[in-house]
Amino acid sequence: MEMAEKDAVTANYKILSDLRAKRKKAHPLKMPLRLNPAGIPICRFHNYDAKKGCMKGADQCGLDHSHCHICLVEGHTALGCPYFNDDEQWKQFLTTYTLLNTRPPDYQKKTVLGDVIVWDTAGLPLECRGDEGQLRRCRKHKRFEAGLLSRLAPNSSFCDVGAHFGDTTLTMAVHAKSIGREDIRFFAFEPSLLKCRWIKMVADANGVNVRVVNCAVGEVERMVVAERGGKRKAIFDGSMIYEEAGEGEEKGGGVRVGGEDVGESDCTDDSESDCSNDDDERKIRMIALDSMVDDISPLGLLHLDVEGWEAKSLKGASDVLRRSSEPCFVIAEVWEEKDCARRGVEGGMEEKICNVMELYQGFKRGDDIKDQERNVVWEKGTQT
């Protein structure tokens, strides 16, 4: 166990080191905007452009040229900041003051490759100010979900299925803490072991309790194969196309394979899949949410972003949804037909989701959330 923990810590440090290296390559305009203690924005060109600096100069720029963009201390720039150039101090800075997230290479069209997002203790990106700019990406659906947290029943759960790097889970968990809703129980389901480690590390660093489950989620429990190459490749280790791995026994909801616990221990078990694996195919454990119905219930909010697997995941959550609290919300991403074709996924996603949700008594269709992505919303126990 000690060796496993040591390996996990080493892997986490490597993540931070890699992200720090990427940050050096980011364009100054793409670095997060921060404010000095007086509330004046700190110039990013002055801090990060070693060759040219700020072309306007301190007198004409109007932004702060005296404080470091990273640690907010006067007297040096970000490029000269000890938190930026020293691994140990950088890690200490991250875990003490910020939440950090980054977009992997699969998100080139949505943000700059290697761009680093620094989150403050309120769970909001520091480059955004004011209520209208709280969330840098998918701000509408995250703002919508943040507004629901105060309405959830006591001790209900928030399940993020397809957690990726924890974009939604971490933001909502920190926000829940800031509004005094630490009773909400957060679950993050993600098939990539490395991403699970990242979510757990950042959650622990920020004092929020997130149960991270390293598995895929579908209709039944089985082993599945994650394809990573060819035409059907959706997004590298973020959007994986699942196929059944052989003709193994299917176990319906409520049944655990061998009584296996799918809790926090999955984050440090190197026997599971790892997103650093270079094989073209990897076997990954898939569960139905109903296999954890006693842990999850009562459900307050279910967030689904599983790259075309939403309908099947909902089929495997029948008991969870029937035992959910009131109010309860289900928010699922849907792709347009052209996106399904481009990613090699069968179309009709919205219709499939609707067909499943109509089976669950009490749930009614709400208004869609449209920003960078479109999410359909189903509600139970809310006033119409």
From TrEMBL:
Residues 261-278 have a biased composition (Acidic residues). Coiled coil: none annotated. It comes from the Eukaryota. Residues 160-334 form the Methyltransferase FkbM domain. Residues 247-278 are annotated as: Disordered. NCBIfam families: fkbM_fam. This is Methyltransferase FkbM domain-containing protein. It comes from Triparma columacea.
